[in-house]
Amino acid sequence: MKRTSQHSHKDLDEETGQNGEDLAQAIVETVREPLLVLSGDMRIRLANRSFYQTFQVSPEETENRRLYELGNHQWDIPKLRELLEDILPEDGHFHDFEVEHDFPNAGRRTMLINARRLRQREPATELILLAIEDITERKRMKSLVRQAARERELKESLERQVAELDAFTYSVSHDLKEPLRAIEAFSQFVLEDCADRLDEQGREYLLKLANAAVRMKRLIDDLLALSRASRESRRRTQVDVGRLVRDVVERMSSTVEGRGATVEVEDGLPDVLADPPRVDEVFVNLLGNALKFNESKRPFVKIGVRATEGGMATFYVQDNGIGIDPQYHERIFGIFQRLHRREEYEGTGAGLAIVKRVVEIFGGRTWVESELSAGATFLFTLPLWTQATASTERKVA
Question: Which domains does the chain have, with CATH numbers?
Answer without folding.
Answer: 31-134 (3.30.450.20), 137-232 (1.10.287), 235-397 (3.30.565.10)
